[in-house]
Design goal:
9 helices, elongated
Length: 442
């Protein structure tokens, strides 16, 4: 009679365990669930890194206008008032009719006002080189902004998948706790029916306590991952956030696509475009430094009034040309040219190194993508095997043909397989996002 009662209770407990496995995880928040696209849109409007990149583009655009200004005349308006007195230094033997020579001239009032203008007519290409450098830097800033946008997108994707993985691990921990509690009840039923040992009861109770600790850790990981996603989106880490995620993705690229990915990345990555523009700007700076050693031809003119009364009526004007030829500057222009050449060589070397890094990034991202895809299939097979093993061991334990250690060991194996599968699914999506970033995809 005891065996029949024990078997009935074991069957009921097994049904409760199956229901716990299939029960959906509770949503801890009542807020609207955000998809990955929602998170990416939120980051576009709030991420400070994007605002900083756009400010850099705006500054580079203003620098282009600044470089264009020397092509136009510069006009200045001058006005002033001075009261002055000076000592008179007159030639010896010079005399004024009817009076002695003055020692002091003044005090007198001096009112003046007028316009002056000058423009560079020819400078052997210095202005043109400066404008070319400014335009190249602007294009480089735009490429840097694109790279920053791609980095922010990848950060949001990685953080989003980390939250999804943490939530799946939380679900696994919840199921593990439910199984551990069911196993504890099974052990208690067997002990009460005289078919089990007190040690089995204590062992299963210890497993329940350990499962509760694992669930606490899983809850904490969800909160930490949510905070990181909020930060990636440009929001405070403690902001309430619920996501809606589905671990579905296309298979990895073919071998032929992976082989051509590096070459494609070199034409699409904004970092390469930025490096090329920086090299272009550096070469333009060399041209500007070389032109600075050549003469400059300028035209200038001025017109105004100057008198000792409040409203001056004496007109003054001048117009003409000038040639500025540097003769000696203690080597300043020569050193500027040498420094510009060294800067250009450095930018070329940095660009070449960046090309090598991008090839390595694409190769590593492709390897990780293939590994994570293979890991999904392996873990799915492991989960199926572990689930079947647990079912068999539960039946054997129910009939008294298995030890409680067999049951708990099988349960541990299943939890490990479920956790590994949950991690592998989201790791694949994160690896695919990293691969798309590496090849310069959107």
């Amino acid at each position: 009679m005891k065996r029949i009662l024990c078997a009935s209770l074991l069957a009921a407990a097994t049904l409760r365990l199956a229901a716990a496995d299939n029960a959906p995880a509770a949503d801890p928040s009542n807020g609207p669930a955000l998809s990955l696209d929602d998170c990416l849109r939120a980051a576009t409007g709030k991420q400070p890194a994007l605002a900083a990149a756009q400010a850099g583009v705006a500054a580079a655009t203003e620098a282009v206008g600044e470089a264009q200004a020397p092509y136009y005349p510069q006009v200045d308006l001058d006005a002033g008032y001075h009261r002055w007195q000076r000592r008179a230094f007159l030639p010896s033997g010079f005399a004024l009719p009817g009076g002695a020579l003055p020692d002091i001239i003044g005090p007198l009032d001096d009112w003046n006002g007028g316009l002056s203008s000058h423009v560079t007519l020819y400078d052997f290409g210095e202005r043109r080189a400066g404008l070319d450098a400014a335009r190249a830097r602007r294009a480089g800033a735009e490429a840097d902004a694109s790279a920053t946008q791609a980095d922010v997108r990848l950060n949001v994707q990685s953080a989003f998948y980390a939250v999804a993985a943490a939530q799946d691990l939380q679900t696994v921990a919840t199921k593990s706790l439910a199984r551990a509690e069911t196993h504890a009840r099974l052990a208690q039923v067997r002990y009460d029916g005289g078919a089990g040992l007190k040690a089995d009861v204590l062992r299963t109770q210890s497993e329940v306590a350990d499962a509760r600790l694992q669930l606490i850790d899983a809850d904490s990981r969800v909160r930490v991952a949510t905070g990181r996603l909020n930060t990636a989106m440009g929001r405070p880490a403690a902001s309430p956030l619920v996501i809606s995620a589905t671990p579905s993705a296309p298979p990895p690229p073919t071998a032929a696509e992976l082989a051509a990915a590096a070459d494609r990345a070199l034409t699409r990555r904004p970092e390469i475009q930025s490096g090329e523009k920086r090299s272009e700007a550096a070469r333009a700076a060399v041209n500007a430094a070389r032109a600075a050693r050549a003469p400059k031809i300028r035209a200038d003119a001025s017109f105004g009034w100057n008198d000792t009364t409040w409203v001056p009526d004496t007109r003054e004007w001048q117009a003409g040309f000038s040639v500025d030829l540097p003769v000696f500057d203690a080597g300043s222009r020569a050193r500027r040219l040498a420094r510009s050449k060294a800067d250009a060589a450095r930018e070329d070397a940095v660009l070449e190194n960046r090309r090598l890094q991008i090839r390595e990034e694409v190769w590593s991202a492709g390897v990780e993508l293939q590994r994570s895809w293979a890991a999904i299939a392996a873990n799915e097979a492991s989960v199926r095997t572990s689930e079947e093993s647990l079912r068999v061991v539960q039946e054997r334990y129910q009939s008294g043909a298995a030890l409680v250690s067999d049951l708990l060991d099988t349960q541990t194996t299943l939890v490990r397989a479920e956790s590994s599968l949950a991690t592998a699914r989201w790791n694949y999506l994160a690896a695919r996002a990293a691969y798309e970033r590496a090849i310069g995809g959107s």
